[in-house]
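Hi R.,

Here's the chain you asked about this morning:
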Amino acid sequence: MKKPNRRRATDIGIRAEPIRGVPTEPNTVVTSLSLTEQVLFRECETILRTGLKTFLEVGSALLTIRENRLYRGTHETFESYCNEYWGISRTYAWRVIGAAERVKLLPENYPKPNSEFQMRPFLKIKTEDFPKVWKQALRKAKNGKVTPRLAEILVQGSPEAVQKR
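And here is the predicted structure, written out as tokens:
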């Protein structure tokens, strides 16, 4: 039986351990988290620290932290939390969050994208249109492998699905 391909934090651009001792901005207002929020925050950070098997787990954990504002116990903004604590940029955080949001819309039995890089072209389309365009990509892919180039061609060929910026 083949072992699953496990990815390390550094494989997807996130530090395996948070940056410690980085002070927040002077005069930063941080708020206390409830016990429930603290538990949720620790679960998300555990995924970020040790469970970094896929970019989807990272995106889901970052989405939970952002949506619930769980960073507010130590940082004033989500961006400063990502940058100071994990060493990742706002852009990268938004990309993996966007990828996770889209992949969650796929049916359970559908093959999933295997990298954030593969998902980048799909971030240009509306979230709700992703499953349809992904199904097209799977049909057109050689040997079932959706390349970023194929994804880009499909996204460009689907102007009604492209998000307006």
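One quick note: Residues 1-12, 19-24 have pLDDT under 50 and may be disordered.

Cheers,
M.
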